[in-house]
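Hey everyone, long-time lurker, first post.

I ran two proteins through the pipeline my lab uses and got sequence/structure pairs for each. Pasting them in order. The first:
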Amino acid sequence: MRLGYLLNTYPQPSVTFVRREIHALERRGISVHRFAMRSDRDALVDPADLQEYDRTELVLQAGAGRLLRDLLGMMVARPAGFVRALASAWQMGGRSAQGRLRHLIYLAEAAHVARRAEVLGLDHLHAHFGTNSAAVAALVRDLGGPGYSFTVHGPEEFDSPLALSLGRKVTGSEFTVAISAHGRSQLCRWADYADWPRIRVVHCGIEPARFPQPAAMPGGGTLRLVNIGRFAEQKGQLLLPEALAMARARGVDVHLTLVGDGPMRPQIEAAIAAHGVGDEVTLTGWLDEAGVRRVLAESHALILPSFAEGLPMVVMEAMAAGRPVIATYIAGNPELVIPGETGWLVAAGDTEALAKGIIDAAGTSGEHLHRMGQAGRARVLQRHDIDREAEKLARLIEEATRR
């Protein structure tokens, strides 16, 4: 089988789960050609991402002239498909001129991908995220190219389901993947009831071999927490400095390592200064996978104060590393974090609740933290082994290509 993978931006530090999924499919003997609209090579720090960059075809690098020629070529060679795709692009663009113009650009990108899919002999396209990558995949199908499927992660897709035409994309797909039961429930809200059976759950996964037996819990009297992720409004990191200050005022000795970067870094740094916790916080910037495993080993627990999520990879990685998790009671988090067993769940947006989670973790013995970490590790390895999850995805693709 020859499979095309389609993303808007790839590779990038925040989507290493896609890279793991592709590699797991390739271990099953499936040939995967990577398409991305764009990528920022200068932002890549992980050697594995740099290798992926060299293996990825960047559609926009073909240039506007090439995309336009491919679009005109489709209009001549496949007039019925072109009219069908043009109508789909117009409808997905909604009523705004900007939306329709954007989808006409997606149509040109789709014409290029369709031409390349024909040259490469691709049997199926799989897109990640229900945004423009799924729109391009749907338009490729309308142009007469291979069928498609796509994985919806959230929360972005669920913020704008109508603008993204999620229901239409589900209907046109061979199948649609949600990464959690919660994600599937949200897709069912926007899909026709008749399409519900085509919405399947395939988890993102980890490579267990990269997570050998967890390191011992750090010693000393300081509770060491780590937060990993993009500094964006949905991740809720702005609550952490105040929560740290509250916990410290109640006698908790705590240190937080923030791993990542993003548009809210200035606000986070300002909040750290405003709450006087500069000595209790370390900002590392983005780290490669080895660096992430190192900071997890040096921490007692992961803390994730998110306002919106899908099913966070950092929770899986922390649990695989034998570390309990303090997370908000949203989205797919409760599918992994079991209060009192693998971590703590707190109300999203509630700084007092977040501070209490920190205080509770500080009051938990190292031995009990270790037992919680082991329980979390067993749970995530059972539910999120990437090779098992890729096998589920491969079966769905194989079934689709036989229809």
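...and the second, right after it:
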Amino acid sequence: MNHIWIMLIGALVASSCSLVGCFLVLRKMSMIGDAISHAILPGIVIAFLLSGTRDSFVMMIGAAVIGIITVFLIQMFQNNGVQSDASIGVVFTALFAGGVVLVSLFTRQVDLDLDCVLYGEIAYAPWDTFIINGMELGPKAVWIVGSILLLNILVIGLFYKQFKLCSFDPAMAAALGIPVVFFHYLLMSLVSLTTVSSFESVGAILVVGMIIVPAATAYLLTDRLFIMIIYSMIAGIVSAVLGYYFAYLMDASIAGCMIMVAGFLFFITLFASPKHGVLFKKWRRKKLVI
């Protein structure tokens, strides 16, 4: 049964991450997920200091708040002339360093398992179950990540046209009266919630990889956003399922194998895509020369 739970959790994480990842790839902000996964460290420590408990839900709230602040700071720096990649690098390294300082100052005598909080392992996720009135309702990760996936589908489904226009042509969106800044922060809030809710259970590597790689793969296959979202979710789910089987056969890291499969699918697409594939581009050039 644990095998099924692990594949289900991986598929839910892949679907949730790839859904928001498509918009990040289009906006050239793919590494924002990696930034959030490091920058939330001070949020975890502050939540622990204020609550006095290591409860994962309390720490997740602190992490989510800092995640949204991270997005706000990155955007503020970009609006003031700092390049996108530099803004991401400055914010997440500064906040991560601040978290390290807080840990060294205030939590020396406490067993605050930051490795578990920041870099959870998907293999252990099925054991952390959700219990109500003595009834086991399955792993917490399924409920948490599943809820975030539904939230992402609901919000993006309701405002699909606005998100689409803001991603492709923000100037036109503003001219049409669409609040571009609001939808930017709404999307970034979804990214922050998706990242924070996922990596405690499955690990930062899997979350960051699933935000970037399936969306980048789908980008090479189509020029239509809706189809890109569908392809990215399929690529993510396939990567999660096949990756688990490879990890089982080789007795290797599950998250690592899932992202390796996703990377393999990307490289196949990079060369064989009928729209943007390297081989097809060369073939079309040869036809033009002939």
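Reply from user beta_strand_b:
Welcome! Quick read of the second one: The mean pLDDT is 81. The chain has one domain: 2-120+148-279.
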